[in-house]
Amino acid sequence: MATGRTHRPATRSRGIPEATVARLPLYLRALTALSERSVPTVSSEELAAAAGVNSAKLRKDFSYLGSYGTRGVGYDVEYLVYQISRELGLTQDWPVVIVGIGNLGAALANYGGFASRGFRVAALIDADPAMAGKPVAGIPVQHTDDLEKIITDNGVSIGVIATPAGAAQPVCDRLVAAGVTSILNFAPTVLSVPDGVDVRKVDLSIELQILAFHEQRKAGEESAAHEGAAVPPVAHDETTDQGPDGDVPAVMPA
Amino acid sequence: MATGRTHRPATRSRGIPEATVARLPLYLRALTALSERSVPTVSSEELAAAAGVNSAKLRKDFSYLGSYGTRGVGYDVEYLVYQISRELGLTQDWPVVIVGIGNLGAALANYGGFASRGFRVAALIDADPAMAGKPVAGIPVQHTDDLEKIITDNGVSIGVIATPAGAAQPVCDRLVAAGVTSILNFAPTVLSVPDGVDVRKVDLSIELQILAFHEQRKAGEESAAHEGAAVPPVAHDETTDQGPDGDVPAVMPA
DNA sequence: CCATCTTTGTGCACGCGTTCACAAAGACAT
DNA sequence: ATGTCTTTGTGAACGCGTGCACAAAGATGG
């Protein structure tokens, strides 16, 4: 997973648990694949395997949407695709803007997974005047000055921030002021937004750090098993080790 | 959050809850910023605000690492940076390979957040022969044929997959066979890996779909509040119907 | 129409994560 | 030393999410 999320006041949206909502896109993808192969029905067991989850969990997830299955048979693929799409709001068109057209922004603009699911890149915005007019993924980049007008004219409610960390909050503020109520943030910053605005965060380096943690753990366990234990899995005498300034990796800008 | 995660056998690594591990990079980032401003100490309240979490949660998180704070004062910034870095395994060098140098792969290669945290891009690998030798982010792209040798020679244990969906599983298999035990997957596919291998998934379109769900809900609520409901929350009923929408509590994440 | 077989939908229990609330610990002033 | 003030560290309660296990529902065949 990436990261994402902000505080979740624990209020279950319309009775559908947040955890379930997060899995619906997963099911949808698996179902779409089945649909393309013209598979008419699928059992919870099969679909769960395809989506990489437990079948009981899948059935419970679907139960929040309603009883769309047929006992003894399974689920109708087409029907389920429709129901989940509707539930996720993918039956309508969602214009999105991407702000910050660097390497990542360009990659996002070119990403095919958006258009295929009801998301339409309405505009690309960058602060660099030199970028203005230059087409990326077939869409001309526009200057930040026109941000508000672009949002309003296109009725954009979802914004993607792919700017450097420093520019993220100001851009976020402007997006929100212009009417955006959902933000996908790729900048390594904690954005503060007013109530009613959703923010999800994707942080590439955080994912790697989590992997590193587990990787280190594996390595530690291994050597501990050898008894030699070059890196004690748990050693922790803050008095002995320590080294407030010792090495410490580099680190980052905000 | 983004996505990420795969099976978590509920085995708490070394007593540190998975949820806590996922937040450590967040704290680290906030602490680093403080460190650069030469702030000597910070209270749980201040740091929590900077990281965007609850202060009680932060204190509990830190309590899993040990008692690194001073009551009445707070936490020593430098010391905490060191401790968290060490805990996450960032005090050592982690060579990573990125497979699939398309738009996204290139963006990742150029991403500064890696190098600064102990991650070193050891190699870029792509299946397109035309890419071979071409430098991306200053690193020459190598051909997939040499994947195994690259992994072995560099002692790589973390791999990043940024290939098209179809190529992901084969690439994953080869990475694992060559010795990689942690994978960050950007391809929209469920990877199957043997036990002992960690997989985290980042899926851009899933994040947007989750936002769309909440966005739709907001829109539905709004029109429902007007009672007139010019735009029914969901409408559409195929044959049967469904649609006990209407009210819905309220409250949203931020 | 009845028996059997398959698969859903869910009641229930359990465990993790979050949050509250407060005692304990230390800093600091007198 | 003693008292006051601040902030940590954590016991305990609570709620959400997960997974088991099974009854109910429907398909299918005789």
From TrEMBL, chains A, B:
GO terms for cellular component: cytoplasm. Residues 26-65 bind DNA. Keywords: Cytoplasm, DNA-binding, NAD, Repressor, Transcription, Transcription regulation. It is found in: Cytoplasm. NAD(+) binds at G100, I101, G102, N103, L104, G105. One of its GO terms (molecular function) is DNA binding. InterPro entries: CoA-bd (IPR003781), NAD(P)-bd_dom_sf (IPR036291), Rex_actinobacterial-type (IPR058236), Rex_DNA-bd_C_dom (IPR009718), Tscrpt_rep_Rex (IPR022876), WH-like_DNA-bd_sf (IPR036388), WH_DNA-bd_sf (IPR036390). Residues 219-254 are annotated as: Disordered. GO terms for biological process: negative regulation of DNA-templated transcription; response to redox state. Belongs to the transcriptional regulatory Rex family. Modulates transcription in response to changes in cellular NADH/NAD(+) redox state. Homodimer. This is Redox-sensing transcriptional repressor Rex. It comes from Streptomyces griseoruber. The lineage of its organism: Bacteria, Bacillati, Actinomycetota, Actinomycetes, Kitasatosporales.
